[in-house]
Amino acid sequence: MKEPLADTPYGAVRGRWEQGIAVFRGIPYAAPPFGEHRFRPPVPPEPWDGVRDAGAFGPTAPKPPYSEAFAQYLSDPVIPGDDCLNLNVWTPEPGPGARLPVLVWLHGGALTRGSSAVPVYDGHAFARDGVVFVSVNYRLGIEGYGLFPDTPPNPGLRDQLAALRWVHDTVAAFGGDPDRVTLCGQSAGAISAGALLAAPQAQGLVRRAVLQSGAPEAPERDKVRRMVRRMANRLKIPATAQAFAEADRELLLRTQAEVGRLSSPVLGGPAFGIVVDGDLVPRDPLQALLDGEAARGVDLLMGWTRDEYRLWLVPGGLLDHVDRLGPVAFAGAMARCRVGHEVPRGYRALRPESGPAEIVGQMVTDHLLRLPLHRLAEARPGSSHLYEFAWPSNRPGLGACHALELGFVFDTGDVPESALLAGEGAPRELGAEMHGAWVRFATTGDPGWQSWDDTHPVRVLGDGEPRTVSGPRDEEFALWTPEAPPHPDRPAELALAVRRLRRSMAAVRRH
Asked: Hey, which residues are catalytic here?
């Protein structure tokens, strides 16, 4: 059989047939983001003559490696090279005319790690089931989300927009329907997808969206500036794009990893994020979507895992450490979530058997994920579907943690990298159920259960037979009422508690 060919705006590409699926890897959608393009918005790639080979993954964006504690759970391949703004396509029917639904995947990794080459993200099962699957690399960390006075913000998000436009203009040549594009992501990828849904420049490019373990957000600009300033202080250079462009790239990555040591979701330290820029992100993305001005008519599938926080706290023994901290941990959670004493008191009353770490973890998870996703569903009833992934990992302590669901979403449970989180013997039928729901949603807009209404239906996956439950954990959500004090009592004391918590947890990580 001849190798599959497809045309792109910049030249033809040659893929590979793999188990009856045409796979094209490493297709550039923008020029390498270095040299004159460093820290700048993406520009089109140089066209090429003849047929470009697309048989292997392209370079991954520069990123520091995971710490030893996290590397035992998460795979993150590194492929060297500057041409890192590339994407991959899996399709069962390459060529115009098929008009199949399209799913565009934005990987997670806190905007600092990850890539489309992670083996768990293999798109074969989606193409096998009639969906054209596209996965995207984009700039990370300081390269993609550094906030400088001499360059436009959010270049990594602008990369994603460029890839989404490429899909709209080109995917028909790979058998896809540009009018049936589902944008999906997990964690930072879901946050990015939410920002793109709200972006004026992306309107009309997306028909449906999946937000898994991430809600639209735009942190305060100063939080991102602090990351850049701290890196600049360590490097002894000005906090400008020009100065950072002249620094050694490997030194930048090492410095970024050191400064970002306390940037976990629980701690809420300085971190890279998508900021309001008056252009691509003209206002807070969540508020824009809640107001209904953006992404009109876009169907939403949104989910989380039951124990998200366990991936943040189990590696390195942080879960036990937070339990020992007790009152300091509660004070830190109050400051992190900007609530008064009644919220942690309420969680303790509803969870009398739980220790401080579990209560703090659930509080932060609700603040970051469940509450904003519920608000989105409330604002878009009838076109929103929610689910909770509840299967506990076979690896000790992880429970149904952050990112565990991805091997089931992609139906890649047989890939060795999936076992890093799931352990051995993960249930294959759960993969069929989870993956099938995403396929049904991308194809029809209905994953197979009731859409959101005033009964608050949530599909529970992995806890016995799949079932739809009305209002799970509404008692805990009711604690976050508008009548509750919006800010912590004695903010100076709570800020001190947060600093103590960060220092204490940093010491645990170092040892």
From this structure: 187, 308, 402
